[in-house]
Amino acid sequence: MIFGRIKSLDAILATAEKKSLHRSLGAFQLTMLGVGAVIGTGIFVLTAEAAQKAGPGMMVSFIIAGFVCAVAALCYAEMSSMVPVSGSAYTYSYAVMGELIAWMVGWALVLEYAVAAGAVSVGWSGYIVGLLENALSIDIPKMFVLGPYDGGMINLPAMAIALLVTWLLVIGTKESAAVNAVLVVIKITALLLFCILALPVMKMENFEPFAPTGFMGISAAAASIFFAYVGFDAVSTAAEETKNPQRNMPIGLIGSLAICTVFYILVAAGVIGSVGAQPVTGADGLALATGSSELTAACSAIGDNAVACSKEALAWTMRSIGWTQVGNLIGLAAGIALPSVILMMMFGQTRIFFVMSRDGLLPAAFSKVHPKYRTPHVVTIITGVFVALFAAFFPVGKLADISNSGTLFAFAMVAIAVFVLRRTDPARNRPFRTPAIWLVAPIAVLGCIYLFISLSTDTKLMFFGWAIIGLIVYFAYSRGRSHVGQGQMEVHEPEIADIEPPVPGTRD
Length: 508
Description:
19 helices; mainly alpha; disordered C terminus
């Protein structure tokens, strides 16, 4: 039963064409969407988290996380070019491993996208609040800019930006992508300026001790900042809205990942070398847990005079090395550009729900398309409300780790799907083929397992709890309403071309 109810690739493609989204995105727009989704989450938001867990060793953490992401990206590139429809890991799993696994993957992707969008909203709030306090000397009550875990009541700025992005996504994909391209330029410019000013003043002594928390700390940091790379696979959820996806999807995936990896390494080196990145320790000399009240109290005692204490790590670094106004400008750039990350995460979530609804696993209203904007507005609004609530009440570190648990599960399933499909359907047209699949796919799976194990115990328990809830929903609602379960298996028909232009290279 676990591997039953497989929906063939031909049926998936037929379903997509019968109820589809408008194709408007090219290779450049996809790459910019990928860069917009990836750059920002780790460097702008989670640098402090990584510093507290691993100290300067976070350089190795970025490399580990980036490597696992790279092998997963190669698997995603093959699947997304071969199956150019919305749904990402959910759709791929449906075609290879059956409905139950596909449902669990889609359920896990809620953690990846919606929770991640909430995390970045919290990070955006930190930069905006820091900018207002440092540049304009506006003192904002902590009660309204921090959630309960951080000693406040509600994070209103984070909540507001999530709702604003929701409105932008309802307007339309093409408009959202155009705005995003401008924000990506601003973000890259800010990071280039940071590197130009921080790298020349690096001091090698700031890298010692390099691994104050040992390899366990480096592994824990890698598991957390894997969050920094997850945006790339959101690009694959845009496959159904992409022109010539067989060519453009691999370019968008691999290109965005390559650009982002270079920036991550350079900026992390600039932070460590210029101001140091040693973790804040307790009376016993051990690093305090991130997101804990003990760390908050220790940071208050030292006047937040450490990277690990900062809510706006890059801006704080610039101010610390004497570039106060540049720090403010970087804070402004982050405040302007981070919404592009939130946008891409929410974009991915709504498209996952859209295709699950189209398969009958979620209510039909979720796949309703706006008559004017041609976007799935109902599910976009629902997603936006939940993201706003996540952002309002939870700290960035907890949200990022929870998001990672779902992401790693989905990535492992995609790697397995690519591997299996090479054996079960070897003749299918593959515009992009994962090199050395017998090596790359197993490494991707093992890498995801390693990072998942490195997450905190609380995070892993929350993931399994979420999975149990997903199973209950599936057997109580989705299984009985599944189109595949009811025998509604669409096939390609010639008249479909009159509804949606045929995609060059698509195999019938």
